[in-house]
């Protein structure tokens, strides 16, 4: 794949920011800024965003604050330009919205049974949640964890937080 089309290149350039609805206005923000300003999701519901962010935070601490929910909602709006990991696993971008909605709805239903998101993650990893509907829970967990890692550590700042030198072949023009 040419460097101009690589996932890393696209992550570095395309997710730097996006338009988010905040208090009735469209603002150009990073996912982290959108999260801090209480963005209004356009594809998922607020409850779905909350559920996905809580699981992401259980998998990758700090993912919620890094703007996980805002990132997912923004990427679902992107269609074929989506950078969500599912696209790179062969999932048709037209099916991504249903995938994330189903995952979130499962989390909402199971979390209402007083199960912590850490316990949900354990059950998902072993596919032992009998009430789970849709794609296998372990696959959903894999996808959500990869997306959470992208948001949390897929930036020069994320690498710095891990104490790892960021040695991108092509440096991002702006930080996200």
Task: Characterise this structure.
With 176 residues, this protein is mainly alpha-helical. The protein has one domain. Helix content is 53%, strand content 6%. The protein is built from nine helices and two strands. A two-stranded antiparallel ribbon has the order 1-2. β1 and β2 form a beta hairpin. α3 crosses α4, α3 crosses α7 (117-125) and α3 (46-59) packs across α8. The chain is globular. Residues 1-15 have low confidence and may be disordered.
List the total number of helices.
Answer: 9
Run of helices and strands: HEEHHHHHHHH
Number of domains: 1
Beta-strand percentage range: 5-15%
Q: Please count the beta strands (DSSP E, at least 2 residues each).
A: 2
Morphology call: globular
Provide the spatial order of strands within the biggest beta sheet.
1-2
Mean pLDDT: 85
Helix proportion: 40-55%
- What's the main sheet like? 2 strands, antiparallel
**First-last Cα distance:** 24 Å
Please compute the radius of gyration using only Cα atoms. Answer: 16 Å
Poorly predicted ranges? 1-15
Structural class: mainly alpha
């Amino acid at each position: 794949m040419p460097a101009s089309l690589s996932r890393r290149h696209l992550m570095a350039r395309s997710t730097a920011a996006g338009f988010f609805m905040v208090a009735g206005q469209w603002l150009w923000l990073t996912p982290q800024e959108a999260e801090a300003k209480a963005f209004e999701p356009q594809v998922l519901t607020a409850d779905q965003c909350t559920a996905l962010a809580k699981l992401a935070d259980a998998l990758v601490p700090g993912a919620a604050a890094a703007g996980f929910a805002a990132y997912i909602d923004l990427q679902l709006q992107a269609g074929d330009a989506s950078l969500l990991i599912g696209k790179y696993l062969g999932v048709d971008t037209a099916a991504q919205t249903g995938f994330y909605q189903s995952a979130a709805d499962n989390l909402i239903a199971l979390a209402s049974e007083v199960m912590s998101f850490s316990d949900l993650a354990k059950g998902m990893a072993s596919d032992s949640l009998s009430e789970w509907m849709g794609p296998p829970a372990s696959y959903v967990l894999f996808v959500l964890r990869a997306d959470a890692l992208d948001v949390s550590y897929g930036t020069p700042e994320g690498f710095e937080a891990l104490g790892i030198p960021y040695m991108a072949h092509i440096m991002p023009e702006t930080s996200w």
